[in-house]
Design a protein that fits this description.
heterodimer, A: 109 residues, mainly beta, 4-stranded antiparallel sheet, 48% strand, globular, B: 112 residues, 7-stranded mixed sheet, 11 strands, 0% helix
């Protein structure tokens, strides 16, 4: 079973920041938080991952709470092409990914 | 670098037949995993191979099998196909255990 809980759907206005929450209250100290997204009928695309510290790359920022029990993926300026299902996954190094149902983000014009 | 390549892209098979799907990982990636995606069950892990050895296996019947070759290319086979095997089959590769996966575009299998 997936170790994460995400809202099933969210809307965001184009050009605004999209903040996608994820709860992982049972995360252990050696588990990483990964975010992937899947645009319809394509393979999941890697976005970002982190362990303890906040992370930023060209696609997004990942904010992990101090107790590591939750995190937020931030897309700073959402575009229509960011409409997708977003998956939050916790994983110990070396283990396979367990995907939950994810959050369906709709970016609205 | 070329991405993860899966062939064929689409496939239609009849119940009872068998099928073989192919995956070429990113050059230098030695780990290959397979996932099945259906509308009802979502993304489910099938198995992972590293250096020609199966490392992990998901909760699927023995009709689902796979292998990895010395060049890291992988195949998965499904025998005695059932209607419920209709799905998008995704292959993913990674450079090492500490990295995330890069997924291919998948093979969409339809069993009729």
């Amino acid at each position: 079973d997936a170790k994460t809980t995400q809202p099933p759907s969210m809307d965001c206005a184009e050009g605004r920041a999209a903040n996608l929450p994820c709860n992982h209250s049972t995360i252990s100290g050696n588990e990483y938080v990964y975010w992937y997204r899947q645009i319809h009928s394509q393979g999941p695309q890697y976005i970002i991952h982190g362990l303890k510290n906040n992370e930023t790359n060209e696609m997004a920022s990942l904010i992990i709470t101090e107790d590591r029990k939750s995190s937020t993926l931030i897309l700073p300026h959402a575009t229509l092409r960011d409409t997708a299902v977003y998956y939050c996954i916790v994983r110990v190094e070396g283990q396979n990914f367990v995907f939950g149902p994810g959050t369906r983000l709709s970016v609205l014009p | 670098k070329a991405g993860v390549t899966q062939t064929p892209r689409y496939l239609i098979k009849t119940r009872g037949q068998q099928v073989t799907l192919s995956c070429s990982p990113i050059s230098g990636h030695r780990s290959v995993s397979w996932y099945q995606q259906t509308p009802g069950q979502g993304l489910q892990f099938l198995f992972e191979y590293f250096s020609e050895t199966q490392r992990n296996k998901g909760n699927f019947p023995g009709r689902f099998s796979g292998r990895q070759f010395s060049n890291s290319r992988s195949e998965m086979n499904v025998s005695t196909l059932e209607l419920g095997d209709s799905a998008l089959y995704l292959c993913a590769s990674r450079e090492g255990q500490q990295y995330g996966y890069t997924f291919g575009s998948g093979t969409r299998l339809t069993v009729v």
